[in-house]
Amino acid sequence: MSASNETAPDHVDEERRDFIHIAAIAATAGGAGLVAYPFVDQMNAAGDTKAASSLEVDISKIPLGGEIRVLIGGKPFFLRHRTAEEIAAAVNTDPSKMMDPETDQERLVPLPDGTYNPAILVTSGACTHLGCVPVGPAQGSVGDYGGWYCPCHGSHYDTSGRIRKGPAPSNLPIPDYEWVTPAVVKISL
Amino acid sequence: MSGHESTYKPETGFTKWLDSRLPIIRLAHDSFVDFPTPKNLNYWYTFGGILAVCLAIQIITGVVLAMHYTADINQAFGSVERIMRDVPYGWLIRNIHMVGASMFFLAVYVHMFRGLYYGSYKAPREVLWLLGCVIYLLMMATAFLGYMLPWGQMSLHGANVIINLFGAIPLVGESIQSWLMGGPSVGNQTLQRFFSLHYLLPFMIAGVVILHIWALHVPGNNNPTGIEVQETEKDTVPFHPYYTVKDGFAIVVFLIIFAAFVFYAPNVLGHADNYIEANPLVTPAHIVPEWYLLPFYAILRAITFNIGPMDAKLLGVIAMFGSIAVLFLLPWLDTSKVKSMRYRPVAKQFFMLFVVVCLLLGWCGASNPDNAIVSMGEDKLVVNYTDAAGLEGTRVFEEYTPAAQFRDAQRDGGGVAAIAIQKAPAFTFKTLSQILTAYYFAFFLIILPVLGLRERPKGEPDSIHQSVLGQDAPAAAPAE
Fold it and tell me: Which helix (H) or strand (E) element contains residue B253?
């Protein structure tokens, strides 16, 4: 017991003290980070939210020239049954002058046998500007290019869902989908 | 002011006992009773007190509403309707909360313009101004979160638009977006977290308000002359009764206006669309935020051009956030040594123009950007066609009937044709908001820094009491 008194240091070892300070601060910061992680991560999509992320849609019910709108995980998607005239308008326009050049066929997904069904166009239903849902044939306005019109800030999409005019930066995205049968598509988020 | 001697003298045994343990009565006495306050504060200076009342009203009514509200997408809209119809006095409390948000912003804008005009952000009050900016940011966040809770059409789609702004951030934008929403879209989980945070933020505001008052009481109030207190005896009066009564009178007048809205026009500042339950498949034709955020919405939409690698959407978001961020820099942007614009004849005019610009930005934010303010000529109809031979062409018509006949003739001939409206050249809201946005930024980034170095101030009095006694330099006769 008395030994420690005899060897009481007559100077402070600054380096040793610095090391202890840095080590203590580093351990505390690391610990704070580890504790913060679950509190930040809890705001990400929960398991059940992620699970509800695909839908099979029967396209045979879509009237010619019309569309149906589905929600997957709360996100809107359009499935449009295009008329011959609308397909022609989409195919015959030179995409090179467009804001986001894509040919009509690049925006279709082939059936398992490798053929395309240009009558059915599947696109996201969220305007690429700020996420409004554009109006279409059922709402009485298709914009200047016959496809969709976003009333929020005036973006016009053509019959292939390509942006032609307005503030939206890109085409309506084509979702990840596949043909289950020639009459059913499965859309996944 | 922090330097002044405490004049509190505990009288009773209990207050003496308390004073030596927790001098809270002394703190209140020194801060709100015997606090030396410049004797020349005008009614523009009563808005601080008015804002404290607004915050209290919002917290009290909000806590009550939370007793009846259900944060669930299937029940939220119904629970708000139940508050309006079935809960005793629920209609009154909700109307107060709803109108209260608007009145809060009305008061904060007057308060901010007041600070801007009298130079209240300048040394030694920079921290006071910065804390005020933090409160303003928290207020906007709280208002945005609260607007989502009734789960009406504007709630959902407004939240969607704002959260989509984060998607403009390169690389991490989409992850931030889905992190904020807690899923692929604005859904139940989003509503729940918005409710939680909407309840939290007002208490954070209250905390920052305490810091704001603390930072006010260190240098003491600014005043309409912008000259610091020199002699406490001559330049100041005690806060109570002089300013408790003046603030009290202003608060009563303010509450009369408040009550007029609550009882006669509770919805006049809102949007009818928000009384339609949220539907993710149908976007309202015209999404607009509440009036108090319209100027920023106009700035967001004013940027419609790309610069280099940055697209218009990102630039719009940067401009919108920049328009708030620039407020934080104001104490260092204004180079003038003279605080009050009363003695800055040129700055005063730019300031008045700035107020007008902010109001006009609000008008632009409420309007469709493509609509014409002044139209030059008539709109025309254009038929774009591709005939059977594959030749493309365009023809312009004045009337619908010939245009439709031409289109049908093309179609009958085996071609493709469609009618579009060609807008006449016009001065649109978009152009106006671009001009106004340019002035908004120029005011802070060019006018205030340059003017402070070049302007010749005029008629500044030597002290507060001199200005009160009308002994200003002869050149200045500031109209009150």
Answer: helix B239-264
